[in-house]
Design a protein that fits this description.
The chain is built from 1 helix and 4 strands; from the N terminus they run αββββ. It is α+β, with helices and mostly antiparallel strands.
């Protein structure tokens, strides 16, 4: 009697093949999903970066003096408080001031806590910018930490401005800048 081995696959071999094939397809789908998400990301990231950089530049161009810019002693004060200001400048927005209509933000400090999102993202003149429904921007202004900028005499002479913009698909951009105090009569 001759024994001949049958050709083919056993049930266990077929099941193992299907499992290995399933794991391979799952890996390919995950990779494809990440590539698809990444291909849209550059445009979203560029838009978030454009919003953040324009807002940071706008803030850095504002005054940072001992007195509020509305104070008649703004260019003669030598310190705050008690250096000649009748209206001391403090971190945070001043009652009644906004970014869009008079009286407008006139000092770097006024932007602390400023937020805008979606349809409320506007240019400095208050014009709504279309197509930014999925974006949000937030600003934080803080006195620098000791030693953060080594050439600054005191921590109250510089502010750190942080602008954070979030966009669709969880894309986020955060930019920081510094504003040094401009006071012509500083000691």
């Amino acid at each position: 009697m001759s024994t001949r081995r049958q050709a083919g696959l056993s049930l266990i071999e077929v099941v193992i093949f299907i499992v290995v094939l399933g794991i391979g397809f799952t890996g390919m789908l995950v990779l494809y999903n990440q590539m698809t998400r990444g291909s849209v990301d550059p445009l979203v990231r560029k838009q978030a970066l454009a919003i953040a950089s324009s807002l940071l530049e706008e803030i850095e161009l504002r005054a940072f003096t001992y007195c509020d810019p509305d104070d008649p002693n703004v260019y003669t004060a030598t310190a705050s408080p008690g250096g000649g200001c009748s209206i001391d400048e403090v971190v945070g927005f001043e009652l009644g001031e906004t970014r869009y209509a008079p009286p407008t933000f006139d000092n770097v400090n006024d932007y602390d806590g400023f937020n805008m999102s979606g349809a409320n993202i506007k240019s400095i003149d208050g014009t709504a910018i279309s197509g930014l429904g999925g974006y949000a921007a937030a600003v934080a202004v803080a006195v620098i930490a000791a030693g953060e900028l080594p050439d600054v005499a005191t921590t109250s002479d510089a502010l750190r401005i942080t602008v954070t913009v979030t966009g669709p698909a969880g894309v986020g951009v955060s930019l920081q800048g510094y504003r040094l105090r401009y006071a012509p009569n500083s000691p």
